[in-house]
Amino acid sequence: MSALQKPKFKDLNHGEVSRQRRFAQRNVSAMEACSIYDKSLLYEFFAWTTFGKKRVERLQQDDTTRLQDGDVINLDDTHLAHPYAKQLPFLAWLFDSSKKSYVWAMNLVVLQAVLQSGLEYPLFYRVWHKLETKGEGITKIDLAKQMLLMLRESTACRLWVAMDRWYLCKEFFAFLEEHQFDWVTKAKRNTSLFRKIIEQPTGRERYEPLTPVMLIREVFKDLTRGASSGLMSIAIQDIYMK
Questions:
Q1: Which of 71, 73, 99, 223 is least crowded, fewest Cβ atoms below 10 Å from its Cβ?
Q2: What φ, ψ does residue 135 adopt, rounded to 5°?
Q3: What is the per-residue pLDDT across 94-151, written as a single tens digit (0 to 9) for each?
Q4: What is the spatial distance between Cα 119 and Cα 160, in angstroms, rounded to a whole number?
């Protein structure tokens, strides 16, 4: 029987050992840097939020920039394309409805003040992170609520919130009503609306379904009658959302 031979291992010279040691140190340093970056990012986010609130508070102390009853708050989200940046954590493939295609971009949710004097200035912004699992995490509506509540810390006046039609949902509508915001948007064709009807002679309440197109047809003549005077609006009573 031949003697057992020791397995052959590749000999590591001094240069290779040093290279592996540097590689391990580099990995540790990278982990430490990520930890420091995460902590600094949280601090900077808190500091930037505080700065933004202080800035808006200061704007409300000046007669020229102060928000007043009837002023408008634009609520919008927009894509900022970054086709050559691959490692930034807040970028994702997002569907661009105007181009009907996906773009590698950042998604900003922003509030902008539009005063009746014509002055416009930015209020707050948030970066929306695409949800990995549908139904989990912070939505764009959640970010909008956060910013509008921050605005309420600086002013209590009655403001209009102008927004895209996809923001119109019962949850956000109830939030705006609760915090004394008026709002304006374009209703989608498939928005579920109902008219409350009191049946006679029983007095029983009944909710009759209708569409935005049906409402426009009802008031179209009244709207066109005042078209020559510029902007026209009509209040329609007893309309509810599901």
A1: 99
A2: 90, -5
A3: 888 777 888 888 888 999 999 999 999 999 988 888 877 676 788 899 999 999 999 9
A4: 15
**Residue 177 shares a structural domain with residue 64:** yes
Strand stretches in 97-163, DSSP E: 101-114, 120-128, 159-163
CATH of the domain at 172: 3.30.420
Instruction: Tell me the residue type at 136.
Output: E
Cα(42)–Cα(16) distance, integer angstroms: 39
- Domain with 127, as residue range(s), is 60-185
Could you tell me if residue 147 is inside a domain?
yes
Q: Are residues 176 and 196 in the same domain?
A: no
Domain count, the chain: 2
pTM > 0.85: no
H or E element in which residue 54 lies: helix 14-59
How many residues are present in the chain? 242
Q: What number of other Cβ atoms are within 10 A of residue 183's Cβ? A: 17
